[in-house]
Amino acid sequence: MEKQGKGRRIMQKKWWREYIVDSIIVIVILSLFASVGYAFFSLPKTDNLDQLQLVAATQVFDINGQLISKLFEENRIVVSINSISPYVQQAIVANEDTRFYSHFGIDPIGIIRAAVINVRYGGIVEGGSTITQQLAKNLFLTQEQTFGRKIKEALLAVLIERKFSKQEILQAYLNQVYFGEGAYGIEAASQLYVGKHASELTLAESALLAGLPRGPNIYSPYSDMNAAVNRRAVVLAGLVKESYITEQQAAVANREPVQLAGKKKRAIQASYFLDYIANELVGRYGANRVYKGGLKVYTSLDTKTQQAAEAVLGEFQGAVLALDARTGYIRAMVGGRNYEESQTNRVLSEIRQPGSAFKPILYAAALNSGLTAASVIVDEPINISGYVPQNYDKKYRGSITLKKAVRWSVNVAAVKVGQQIGMENVLNLARSMGISTIVPEDNNLASALGGLTQGVSLFELTTAYTGFANGGVISKPVAIVKVLDENDRVLEQSQLSQQTALQPDVAYIITDILKSVLDNGTGTPANLGRPAAGKTGTTDNYETAWFMGYTPELVVGIYIGNDNRKPVGISGTEVSALWGTMMSKVVSDSRAIDFSVPPNVITKLAICAESGKLAPSSGCSDTEYSAFIRGTEPKVTDSRTRGVQSAPSNNQRDNRPFWKLPWRLPGF
Known about the structure:
Layout: H1 2-41, E1 58-61, E2 67-71, E3 75-76, H2 86-96, H3 108-121, H4 131-140, H5 147-163, H6 166-176, E4 183-184, H7 186-194, H8 203-210, H9 216-219, H10 225-241, H11 247-255, H12 271-285, H13 287-292, E5 296-299, H14 303-310, E6 318-324, E7 330-334, H15 346-349, H16 359-368, E8 376-379, E9 398-401, H17 402-407, H18 411-421, H19 423-432, H20 458-469, E10 473-475, E11 480-484, E12 490-493, E13 498-500, H21 504-520, E14 533-538, E15 545-550, E16 554-560, H22 572-586, E17 601-608, E18 623-629
Parallel strand pairs: 1-5, 3-4
Antiparallel strand pairs: 1-2, 5-11, 6-7, 6-16, 8-9, 10-13, 11-12, 14-15, 15-16, 17-18
Helix pairs in contact: 1-5, 2-8, 2-10, 4-5, 4-6, 8-10, 10-11, 14-22, 16-18, 16-19, 16-21
């Protein structure tokens, strides 16, 4: 009986052990099924590889179709499998997933082989993940090392393999994988490392790049050339082992020197311009699509003009804007002397007194009112209800023509003209030319000298000057010419936005007057030796100095001014020299053309600048050649005789070059 009881107890213990073991096995199996089930039902959708959210950089091109920058969170350019060298495809398969073309998403043989190797070396030496698993993980999952994530990865890989071809999967992988140095995808990597497209890669270059995903920071040739070359040799050996290439081909590729493109600094920065268009794009398409959607943005920027503009400011603070007068295309935009120092775009944000750079609008209104370039104004001390305007040189010239008043930026003459024609007419014209900062308080004579209550932005003042250069038609600025989506479908195409603000005759006569500013007036340092026009501007205490100039094709505005409004110590004349230096570079290889003369305008009529009458063959001390609307030109010849000029008096002109005069006072 005792033996039977003992045997029964042993049998009961055995039964309990088996029950417990079986229960554990059942629990494990149920847990496994539950995990797999949960993983399966929580998988993301994988309906179409074209919608797998491959994050691609937006490419930005200049007006000539040259890539100038990218907007991205991840620098990626998505390309088709047909645009990737076959060597790259073979090298990735041979070294990342040798059974890629035969497995169904996961590779049991590969997993077993990796496990054996890892046991042999006592650590993680080789992974068992297939290319499809890596793609599934990187596109859909986190990088966490958990059992649940591994199950999801495997299930996703199987699903992807059932839905898509091997070429589609390989294409997605090669566009997705990280190659180091900020390059995502083979196309971005190819351009970064060897300076060519992925379709153009040689065997050696393909092996070099295919070796990077295993250790982008370790094998980057920019960081360690020896490590990169050694890794290339391993990849080439893998290609030989898998019979993609011969040993002889591998030997030749191993001897090929690595020719890197170099980490080139962008030839142009255009940072302020890029910010400007990025803001416009985000407003239209949203940040996600702009920085991840692989858009192609074709802009109005001209690289040569931008490079010249970026050299203008030097140590001065200020801004530069160049517009195509005929289209409004922004050819260059510089919002400050140093983008790293300040990202504020002063082209747009700074509202400043324009000084005499505003006077062409005043004189355009004067021409609208019936005055001509030969209308005579007496430059003399005046006091208008307590307002006593001063000329920059504190001198008075007596009777002068309107053209001479502009040429030498005579303040008293400008105030008299404003009083005669009514400042309301001037301000209305300014508004019609796009100056939005005009306020009712500006209806005073100080505004004739650019003493506006708020001031103007360089953006709007430069836009207004397109009306002078473009026959009276204002061309509103355009930065984005065309936008394509990731499939090269056109999302938008710019249309010109223009409005007529001046009659062509008036616009041409203003241009003819402003040409004399560069020929023998306050802006002579800007003389290019070819048709160009412009106007200087200097505000009180040298707070801001301007030059607004243009050729028949291009309007360029520059202002110099400290952000804290401390005096800059230079005048508009000196800024005109900066303009001249810039524009000499811009027009260096282009043919000179003159401004188009409207049919109702007569030009080059010799006028005595003191009388406004036709100049005789001799005897006029200051002859200027002016343009007139037909029928408004002077008919009477100046009959006064002129003797030899004495040294300049208070009312006489000093014939030394303007920039060599001993005074520099605001207003010119």
